[in-house]
Design goal:
The protein contains 12 helices and 15 strands. It has 391 residues and is α/β, with parallel strands linked by helices. Its cofactor is Zn(2+). This is Allantoate amidohydrolase. InterPro entries: Amidase_Cbmase, Bact_exopeptidase_dim_dom, Peptidase_M20. It holds the Pfam family Peptidase_M20.
């Protein structure tokens, strides 16, 4: 199934994938989801916020066990971040169907919309809208680099902007959510190993998501001609940007957190013009909320907080139950990356995350990897969980 996506949105220069929300490439990914579901006889629907759902035994009594992830990517992203969780869920269901298994409760596979936030700047928009953790007005006003609003982008593909918002009835149907995801980085496990590879395990369980946020700095200057303005007379905001980038790095290292200036917008963006305005976006996260916030506060520039999520623990009972199904000795480790599972957990729904070993530790890049045998073990894990929790 992943091979079927191998050329969808591929960046010919980097070899990674550009799968941004509400684009033609995103539509191709969504069609792939529908085809996978149809091959298994699952009923597909798109909810009011653009999230895709495929249902198995939807009319059964009881709350739904939901599996899945997302299909969008960061610029030049990897092949596994998101699609691995969706494909693995479909594969597990296919195996069980061939074995004649009949679930006693509704099962759903979900592909949440715009998880990465690569186009509009806010992550997990689909799950945040579903749970009500972002307002429709705030979401619809988001703009991409071309000035297209989220409202315009969604309307273009047939999603009615007026329908967006918290879906309490759908949330009430979800009994638990389990997201399988490729390991990102090599964070310390509960035994002290640096990642799943060092722990000698193909699979791990996430205990929590680190607190994380995004901030924007707007540094103003005076636009002028690069060939006629004396150096001493320039008010160049790029100098302020350079200082900010270095300050972010130095303070993050001193505080023991992670912080990145990963996106910059320069106006007017001409080679022969001194810029008039530079906007820079800072991503900061770590294992201690107070140190993340203190580091950002010490930067000494005016910042606009565009998003913030506190430490998000995953459900201890569900995680322990999944661990038991998997043999009771799966390494546990935190996630430095945000996920839809975290948004669902903050909405009060029991959620857990299974991580599949990544030998490189690299993610959000073309070198992201997961070995076929490890992916097969991830599918087997979901298959066992479905048997255990839906018999």
């Amino acid at each position: 199934m992943l091979d079927e996506l191998s050329e969808v949105g591929r960046n010919p220069r980097s070899g990674g994938f550009d799968r941004f929300a509400w684009t033609d490439v995103d539509t191709e990914c969504r069609q792939w989801f529908e085809q996978c579901a149809a091959a298994l006889g699952l009923d597909v629907e798109t909810d009011r916020n653009g999230n895709l759902w495929a249902w198995w035994n939807e009319a059964a009594p009881g709350s739904a066990l939901v599996l899945g992830s997302h299909l969008d990517s960061v610029p030049s992203g990897g092949a596994f971040d998101g699609p691995l969780g969706v494909a693995s869920a479909f594969a597990a269901i296919g195996d069980l169907q061939r074995d004649g298994f009949e679930p006693s409760r509704p099962i759903a596979v979900v592909a949440f919309a715009d998880e990465e936030g690569a186009r509009f700047g806010v992550a997990c928009v689909g799950s945040r809208l579903l749970t009500g953790s972002i307002s429709p007005a705030s979401a619809l006003a988001l703009r991409d680099v071309d000035g297209v609003t989220l409202a315009e982008a969604m309307a273009r593909v047939g999603i009615a902007p007026a329908d967006l918002g918290a879906d309490r009835r759908r949330i009430a149907r979800i009994g638990e959510f389990i997201e399988l995801h490729v390991e990102q980085g090599h964070l310390r496990t509960d035994s002290g190993s640096a990642g799943l590879g060092a722990a000698g395990s193909a699979l791990g369980l996430a205990t929590c998501i680190w607190p994380h946020g995004r901030w924007r700095a707007d540094i103003a200057g005076s636009q002028n001609h690069a060939g006629t303005t004396p150096m001493a007379d320039r008010d160049d905001p790029m100098i302020g940007l350079a200082r900010l980038v270095l300050d972010v790095r130095q303070r993050a290292r001193a505080a023991g957190i992670l912080a990145t200036v990963g996106k910059v917008k320069v106006e007017p963006g001409a080679v022969n013009a001194v810029p008039g305005l530079v906007s820079a976006w800072i991503d900061a996260r770590g294992d201690d909320e107070s140190r993340v916030r203190e580091t950002i506060a010490q930067l000494g520039v005016e910042l606009v907080e565009e998003s913030w999520t506190s430490t998000t623990p995953f459900d201890a009972d569900l995680t322990a139950s999944v661990d038991g199904v998997l043999g009771g000795s799966v390494p546990r480790l935190p996630s430095g990356a945000g996920h839809d599972a975290g948004v669902i957990a903050l909405a009060g729904i029991p959620a857990a995350m299974i991580l599949v070993r990544n030998p490189t530790g690299i993610s959000h890049a073309p070198a992201e990897r997961a070995e076929p045998d490890d992916c097969d073990l991830g599918v087997a894990a979901l298959r066992s969980i479905l048997r255990s929790r839906a018999s």
